[in-house]
Amino acid sequence: MPxxxxxxxxxxxxxxxKFAEALNHTAGVVLEAVASRDPARAAAFAxxxxxxxxxxxxxxxxxxxSVDVIYIATPHGFHLEHALLCLERGKPLLIEKPLTLSGxxxxxxxxxxxxxxxxxxxxxxxxxxxxxxxxxxxxxEGRIGDLRMVTADFCFRGTQNPEGRxxxxxxxxxxxxxxxxxxxxLFQLLLGNPEKILSTARLAAGGADETCQAxxxxxxxxxxxxxxxxxxDSPVTATISGTEGMIQIPARxxxxxxxxxxxxxxxxxxxxxxxxxxxxxxxxxxxxxxxDEGVLESPDWPHSMVxxxxxxxxxxxxxxxxxxx
Length: 325
Hints:
Number of domains: 2
Oligomer: single chain
Radius of gyration: 20 Å
Strand order of the largest sheet: 8-9-10-7-11-12-13-14
CATH architecture of the largest domain: 2-Layer Sandwich
CATH class of the largest domain: Alpha Beta
Shape: globular
Helix content: 25-40%
Protein backbone atom coordinates (compact mmCIF):
# COMPACT_ATOMS: atom_id res chain seq x y z
CA MET A 1 0.00 0.00 0.00
CA PRO A 2 1.17 3.58 -0.64
CA UNK A 3 2.70 5.40 2.31
CA UNK A 4 0.11 7.77 3.83
CA UNK A 5 0.65 11.52 3.75
CA UNK A 6 1.63 12.55 7.29
CA UNK A 7 -0.02 15.78 8.46
CA UNK A 8 0.91 18.22 11.15
CA UNK A 9 -1.53 20.75 12.62
CA UNK A 10 -0.24 24.13 13.75
CA UNK A 11 -2.79 25.75 16.04
CA UNK A 12 -5.27 23.28 17.61
CA UNK A 13 -8.34 25.51 17.79
CA UNK A 14 -11.99 24.89 16.95
CA UNK A 15 -11.54 24.79 13.18
CA UNK A 16 -8.56 22.44 13.58
CA UNK A 17 -10.82 19.99 15.40
CA LYS A 18 -13.06 19.71 12.35
CA PHE A 19 -9.98 19.26 10.20
CA ALA A 20 -8.58 16.53 12.45
CA GLU A 21 -11.92 14.70 12.36
CA ALA A 22 -11.86 14.80 8.56
CA LEU A 23 -8.26 13.54 8.50
CA ASN A 24 -9.32 10.54 10.57
CA HIS A 25 -12.06 9.77 8.01
CA THR A 26 -9.95 10.22 4.86
CA ALA A 27 -7.97 7.45 3.20
CA GLY A 28 -4.26 7.88 2.53
CA VAL A 29 -3.54 10.39 5.29
CA VAL A 30 -2.62 10.31 8.97
CA LEU A 31 -2.41 12.95 11.70
CA GLU A 32 1.25 12.73 12.69
CA ALA A 33 1.77 15.67 15.06
CA VAL A 34 0.21 18.81 16.49
CA ALA A 35 1.76 21.99 17.88
CA SER A 36 0.49 24.71 20.21
CA ARG A 37 2.22 27.34 22.28
CA ASP A 38 0.36 25.74 25.17
CA PRO A 39 1.84 22.22 25.64
CA ALA A 40 -1.19 21.06 27.66
CA ARG A 41 -3.52 22.10 24.88
CA ALA A 42 -1.38 20.29 22.31
CA ALA A 43 -1.35 17.16 24.48
CA ALA A 44 -5.12 17.20 24.92
CA PHE A 45 -5.69 17.65 21.18
CA ALA A 46 -3.27 14.83 20.34
CA UNK A 47 -4.99 12.50 22.77
CA UNK A 48 -8.47 13.34 21.48
CA UNK A 49 -7.63 12.67 17.83
CA UNK A 50 -5.19 9.78 18.16
CA UNK A 51 -2.14 11.78 17.23
CA UNK A 52 1.18 10.19 18.17
CA UNK A 53 3.17 13.31 19.02
CA UNK A 54 2.71 16.90 20.09
CA UNK A 55 4.87 19.98 20.58
CA UNK A 56 4.70 23.06 22.80
CA UNK A 57 6.15 25.29 20.07
CA UNK A 58 5.74 25.74 16.32
CA UNK A 59 9.35 25.44 15.21
CA UNK A 60 9.61 21.85 16.42
CA UNK A 61 6.65 20.89 14.23
CA UNK A 62 8.08 22.75 11.23
CA UNK A 63 11.43 20.96 11.64
CA UNK A 64 9.95 17.49 12.22
CA UNK A 65 11.14 15.20 9.39
CA SER A 66 8.20 12.86 10.02
CA VAL A 67 5.68 15.53 8.93
CA ASP A 68 5.01 15.79 5.17
CA VAL A 69 2.61 18.75 5.12
CA ILE A 70 1.31 21.23 7.69
CA TYR A 71 -2.17 22.70 8.15
CA ILE A 72 -2.02 26.18 9.70
CA ALA A 73 -5.11 27.07 11.72
CA THR A 74 -3.99 30.02 13.84
CA PRO A 75 -5.85 33.38 13.74
CA HIS A 76 -5.71 35.32 10.46
CA GLY A 77 -3.22 37.85 11.73
CA PHE A 78 -0.54 35.20 12.26
CA HIS A 79 -0.89 33.26 9.01
CA LEU A 80 1.98 34.96 7.19
CA GLU A 81 4.38 34.66 10.13
CA HIS A 82 3.64 30.98 10.68
CA ALA A 83 3.61 30.17 6.97
CA LEU A 84 7.04 31.70 6.44
CA LEU A 85 8.36 29.82 9.47
CA CYS A 86 7.23 26.54 7.90
CA LEU A 87 8.31 27.37 4.35
CA GLU A 88 11.80 28.25 5.54
CA ARG A 89 11.99 24.71 6.92
CA GLY A 90 10.78 23.07 3.73
CA LYS A 91 7.19 22.23 4.56
CA PRO A 92 4.27 22.28 2.07
CA LEU A 93 1.24 24.06 3.52
CA LEU A 94 -2.53 24.20 3.65
CA ILE A 95 -3.41 27.51 5.33
CA GLU A 96 -6.82 28.26 6.79
CA LYS A 97 -8.77 30.94 4.96
CA PRO A 98 -8.10 33.75 4.46
CA LEU A 99 -4.55 32.98 3.40
CA THR A 100 -3.27 36.24 4.92
CA LEU A 101 -4.60 39.70 5.79
CA SER A 102 -3.99 41.37 2.43
CA GLY A 103 -2.87 41.11 -1.16
CA UNK A 104 0.64 42.32 -0.26
CA UNK A 105 1.04 39.61 2.38
CA UNK A 106 -0.37 37.00 0.03
CA UNK A 107 2.09 37.98 -2.70
CA UNK A 108 4.96 37.67 -0.23
CA UNK A 109 3.78 34.24 0.88
CA UNK A 110 3.18 32.81 -2.59
CA UNK A 111 6.43 34.28 -3.93
CA UNK A 112 8.32 32.61 -1.09
CA UNK A 113 6.59 29.29 -1.76
CA UNK A 114 7.53 29.53 -5.43
CA UNK A 115 11.14 30.33 -4.58
CA UNK A 116 11.28 27.39 -2.17
CA UNK A 117 9.56 25.11 -4.71
CA UNK A 118 6.90 24.23 -2.13
CA UNK A 119 3.15 23.64 -2.37
CA UNK A 120 0.79 26.15 -0.71
CA UNK A 121 -3.00 26.29 -0.84
CA UNK A 122 -5.59 28.41 0.91
CA UNK A 123 -8.04 26.21 2.79
CA UNK A 124 -11.14 27.54 1.03
CA UNK A 125 -12.77 24.19 1.68
CA UNK A 126 -16.15 25.11 0.19
CA UNK A 127 -14.60 25.48 -3.26
CA UNK A 128 -14.18 21.68 -3.43
CA UNK A 129 -17.58 20.64 -2.07
CA UNK A 130 -20.07 18.68 -4.20
CA UNK A 131 -22.64 21.50 -4.07
CA UNK A 132 -20.23 24.01 -5.63
CA UNK A 133 -18.99 21.46 -8.17
CA UNK A 134 -22.61 20.74 -9.14
CA UNK A 135 -23.42 24.44 -9.55
CA UNK A 136 -20.35 24.88 -11.77
CA UNK A 137 -21.41 21.92 -13.92
CA UNK A 138 -24.93 23.26 -14.39
CA UNK A 139 -23.57 26.66 -15.42
CA UNK A 140 -21.10 25.10 -17.88
CA GLU A 141 -23.91 23.07 -19.42
CA GLY A 142 -25.87 26.26 -20.06
CA ARG A 143 -28.73 25.23 -17.82
CA ILE A 144 -29.34 28.81 -16.67
CA GLY A 145 -28.29 30.52 -19.90
CA ASP A 146 -25.80 33.36 -19.64
CA LEU A 147 -24.74 34.06 -16.07
CA ARG A 148 -25.91 37.49 -14.95
CA MET A 149 -25.93 37.81 -11.15
CA VAL A 150 -24.72 36.04 -8.00
CA THR A 151 -25.92 36.96 -4.51
CA ALA A 152 -24.73 35.45 -1.24
CA ASP A 153 -24.81 36.38 2.43
CA PHE A 154 -23.03 35.08 5.52
CA CYS A 155 -23.87 36.67 8.85
CA PHE A 156 -23.91 35.18 12.33
CA ARG A 157 -24.10 36.49 15.88
CA GLY A 158 -20.68 36.14 17.48
CA THR A 159 -19.33 37.01 20.91
CA GLN A 160 -18.64 40.74 21.24
CA ASN A 161 -15.27 40.41 22.95
CA PRO A 162 -12.77 43.17 22.06
CA GLU A 163 -9.89 40.75 22.71
CA GLY A 164 -11.44 37.81 20.82
CA ARG A 165 -10.54 36.93 17.25
CA UNK A 166 -13.76 38.41 15.81
CA UNK A 167 -13.15 41.93 17.15
CA UNK A 168 -9.40 42.13 17.77
CA UNK A 169 -7.80 43.88 14.79
CA UNK A 170 -4.38 42.47 15.62
CA UNK A 171 -5.88 39.03 14.94
CA UNK A 172 -7.53 40.19 11.71
CA UNK A 173 -10.95 40.74 13.25
CA UNK A 174 -14.15 41.70 11.46
CA UNK A 175 -16.71 40.06 9.22
CA UNK A 176 -14.94 40.63 5.89
CA UNK A 177 -12.00 38.33 6.61
CA UNK A 178 -13.90 35.86 8.74
CA UNK A 179 -17.01 35.19 6.65
CA UNK A 180 -17.12 37.75 3.82
CA UNK A 181 -14.33 35.74 2.24
CA UNK A 182 -16.86 32.97 1.47
CA UNK A 183 -19.21 34.89 -0.88
CA UNK A 184 -16.29 36.82 -2.38
CA UNK A 185 -14.52 33.54 -3.18
CA LEU A 186 -17.70 32.26 -4.83
CA PHE A 187 -17.89 35.45 -6.91
CA GLN A 188 -14.23 35.10 -7.90
CA LEU A 189 -14.80 31.51 -8.97
CA LEU A 190 -17.90 32.19 -11.06
CA LEU A 191 -17.41 35.76 -12.30
CA GLY A 192 -13.69 36.54 -12.23
CA ASN A 193 -12.44 40.08 -11.59
CA PRO A 194 -14.89 42.95 -11.03
CA GLU A 195 -14.70 46.22 -12.95
CA LYS A 196 -16.31 48.31 -10.20
CA ILE A 197 -16.96 47.85 -6.48
CA LEU A 198 -19.23 49.84 -4.18
CA SER A 199 -19.03 48.88 -0.52
CA THR A 200 -19.91 50.07 2.96
CA ALA A 201 -19.43 48.77 6.48
CA ARG A 202 -20.43 49.42 10.08
CA LEU A 203 -17.36 49.44 12.29
CA ALA A 204 -17.27 48.52 15.97
CA ALA A 205 -15.47 50.69 18.51
CA GLY A 206 -12.18 48.85 17.97
CA GLY A 207 -12.37 49.08 14.18
CA ALA A 208 -13.71 45.63 13.29
CA ASP A 209 -16.41 45.59 10.63
CA GLU A 210 -19.50 44.18 12.30
CA THR A 211 -21.22 44.23 8.91
CA CYS A 212 -19.89 44.71 5.41
CA GLN A 213 -21.89 45.04 2.19
CA ALA A 214 -20.63 45.19 -1.38
CA UNK A 215 -22.06 45.47 -4.89
CA UNK A 216 -19.68 44.30 -7.60
CA UNK A 217 -20.01 44.91 -11.34
CA UNK A 218 -18.34 42.66 -13.93
CA UNK A 219 -17.84 42.69 -17.71
CA UNK A 220 -20.76 41.41 -19.76
CA UNK A 221 -23.57 43.03 -17.74
CA UNK A 222 -22.89 40.73 -14.78
CA UNK A 223 -23.03 41.65 -11.10
CA UNK A 224 -22.80 40.30 -7.56
CA UNK A 225 -24.00 41.34 -4.13
CA UNK A 226 -22.75 40.23 -0.72
CA UNK A 227 -23.26 40.97 2.93
CA UNK A 228 -21.22 39.65 5.83
CA UNK A 229 -21.76 40.17 9.54
CA UNK A 230 -20.70 39.02 12.99
CA UNK A 231 -23.40 40.63 15.15
CA UNK A 232 -26.64 39.10 13.80
CA ASP A 233 -27.91 36.05 11.92
CA SER A 234 -28.89 36.09 8.24
CA PRO A 235 -30.43 33.46 5.94
CA VAL A 236 -26.97 32.40 4.59
CA THR A 237 -28.26 31.45 1.14
CA ALA A 238 -26.92 31.96 -2.38
CA THR A 239 -28.62 32.55 -5.72
CA ILE A 240 -26.96 32.25 -9.13
CA SER A 241 -29.11 33.87 -11.82
CA GLY A 242 -28.91 33.61 -15.60
CA THR A 243 -30.90 34.57 -18.65
CA GLU A 244 -32.67 31.20 -18.73
CA GLY A 245 -33.06 30.32 -15.06
CA MET A 246 -31.44 30.29 -11.65
CA ILE A 247 -29.69 28.06 -9.14
CA GLN A 248 -30.77 28.33 -5.51
CA ILE A 249 -28.44 27.06 -2.77
CA PRO A 250 -30.22 26.84 0.60
CA ALA A 251 -28.86 27.57 4.05
CA ARG A 252 -26.09 27.26 4.86
CA UNK A 253 -25.07 27.66 1.26
CA UNK A 254 -21.32 27.30 1.78
CA UNK A 255 -21.77 23.76 3.11
CA UNK A 256 -25.19 22.78 1.73
CA UNK A 257 -25.91 19.22 0.71
CA UNK A 258 -28.38 20.12 -2.05
CA UNK A 259 -29.38 22.80 -4.52
CA UNK A 260 -32.26 23.50 -6.87
CA UNK A 261 -32.28 24.42 -10.54
CA UNK A 262 -35.17 26.61 -11.68
CA UNK A 263 -35.18 26.76 -15.50
CA UNK A 264 -37.18 29.64 -16.93
CA UNK A 265 -40.79 28.53 -17.42
CA UNK A 266 -40.14 24.99 -16.14
CA UNK A 267 -40.56 23.10 -12.88
CA UNK A 268 -37.88 23.26 -10.21
CA UNK A 269 -35.36 20.43 -10.24
CA UNK A 270 -33.65 19.24 -7.03
CA UNK A 271 -30.05 18.03 -6.92
CA UNK A 272 -28.63 16.15 -3.94
CA UNK A 273 -24.98 16.93 -3.21
CA UNK A 274 -24.13 15.24 0.12
CA UNK A 275 -20.64 15.36 1.61
CA UNK A 276 -18.76 12.20 2.55
CA UNK A 277 -18.07 13.33 6.14
CA UNK A 278 -17.93 16.96 7.29
CA UNK A 279 -16.74 18.61 4.05
CA UNK A 280 -13.12 19.20 5.04
CA UNK A 281 -12.14 15.90 3.43
CA UNK A 282 -12.39 17.36 -0.07
CA UNK A 283 -9.66 19.95 0.43
CA UNK A 284 -7.53 17.26 2.09
CA UNK A 285 -7.94 15.07 -0.99
CA UNK A 286 -7.00 18.01 -3.21
CA UNK A 287 -3.77 18.62 -1.29
CA UNK A 288 -2.89 14.92 -1.46
CA UNK A 289 -3.58 14.89 -5.20
CA UNK A 290 -1.38 17.92 -5.77
CA UNK A 291 1.46 16.53 -3.66
CA ASP A 292 1.27 13.20 -5.50
CA GLU A 293 1.44 15.02 -8.85
CA GLY A 294 4.24 17.30 -7.72
CA VAL A 295 2.45 20.57 -8.50
CA LEU A 296 3.03 23.70 -6.40
CA GLU A 297 -0.55 24.97 -6.38
CA SER A 298 -4.03 23.64 -6.93
CA PRO A 299 -5.27 24.11 -10.51
CA ASP A 300 -8.78 24.44 -9.08
CA TRP A 301 -7.86 27.10 -6.50
CA PRO A 302 -4.62 28.65 -7.81
CA HIS A 303 -2.62 31.45 -6.27
CA SER A 304 -3.73 33.84 -9.03
CA MET A 305 -7.38 33.41 -8.09
CA VAL A 306 -6.67 33.98 -4.41
CA UNK A 307 -4.55 37.05 -5.21
CA UNK A 308 -7.29 38.50 -7.42
CA UNK A 309 -9.86 37.97 -4.66
CA UNK A 310 -7.54 39.79 -2.24
CA UNK A 311 -7.41 42.75 -4.64
CA UNK A 312 -11.17 42.92 -4.32
CA UNK A 313 -11.00 42.58 -0.53
CA UNK A 314 -8.28 45.24 -0.29
CA UNK A 315 -10.43 47.70 -2.22
CA UNK A 316 -13.44 46.94 -0.03
CA UNK A 317 -11.30 47.53 3.06
CA UNK A 318 -10.08 50.83 1.64
CA UNK A 319 -13.61 52.01 0.83
CA UNK A 320 -14.87 51.00 4.27
CA UNK A 321 -11.92 52.25 6.34
CA UNK A 322 -11.05 48.81 7.72
CA UNK A 323 -7.47 48.69 9.03
CA UNK A 324 -5.67 45.79 10.70
CA UNK A 325 -3.01 46.36 13.36
